[in-house]
Amino acid sequence: MHALFLKARNAGIGIAPGHNRYDHCFRLNAGFGWNEEVAQAICQLAAWCRESLA
User: Which residue(s) pair with 26 in the sheet?
Assistant: First the structure.
């Protein structure tokens, strides 16, 4: 998960990695407005997650 965190940070996407028993998780902030940039960032995160499972 740390690798995903670093990849996202380098792309300007903010996620918070989980800790301890949640090491396989990350958190997204849902307090922001929805727009195309947010949608694209979530799609990019999904693609990276799929790649890591392949």
Answer: 17
The angle subtended at Cα 46 by Cα 43 and Cα 49, nearest 5°, is 155
CA terminus-to-terminus distance, the chain: 15
According to DSSP H, which parts of the chain are helical?
2-10, 36-53
Consecutive H or E run containing 16: strand 16-17
Phi, psi (5° rounding) for residue 49? -65, -45
Q: What is the pTM of this model?
A: 0.84
DSSP classification of residue 27 = E
The rounded percent of the chain whose pLDDT value lies above 90 is 72
- Answer for the pair 32, 47: CB distance below 8 angstroms, yes or no: no
